Please model this.
Amino acid sequence: MNIKNIKIVKLHRQLALPLFVPLLLTGISGVAYRLGRSWLGLPKSFGQFMMTIHEGRFLGEPLVPFYVALVGLGLLALIGSGAVLWSRFRRRSPAKLPPERNIHRFLAPIAFLPLVVTASTGIAYRLSITWLGFSEEQVKFLMTLHQGSYLDSTLKPFYVLLVGAGLLIMLCTGVQMLLLARRTRREAN
Model:
């Protein structure tokens, strides 16, 4: 592996570890919000609680835009570094790789665009309202893209479920690979 690839792998791993819990919470709460409200008819209070987790409101209202920006930009950085790695290593034989790496590598190009759209529109929506002073009505189109509302009310929950599941699978397989790499390094020393 050349020095550029080593640096990108290292960056990807260094980003992944501190972002794991915030992204896990964001993904689960986003899916729970949409499915709870759409399919289970759960009350607005449930939705508000899920949004408290989803946007990091538990840290205090003034920190919400920072939390959303950091987690969202972190996800975009993971996606970017992952895309570079995928393009450089996609020709490796799947038979020689651990199962979690094959799942991660297979799902990456499928999850790429929905995750980029979801992360970037979520960041833009929150920051446009909080820092730029736009009204919710003015940036409603961003939430439409973020949630897949353009698909209609029947398909929107499925879109959110698939994007959330993609994120959660990428997170879980990524952590498994990280733990495997650490164990392999320890055994080599």
Observations:
- The chain has a mean pLDDT of 93.
- The radius of gyration is 18 Å.
- Helices lie at 3-38, 44-54, 64-89, 99-130, 140-147, 156-188.
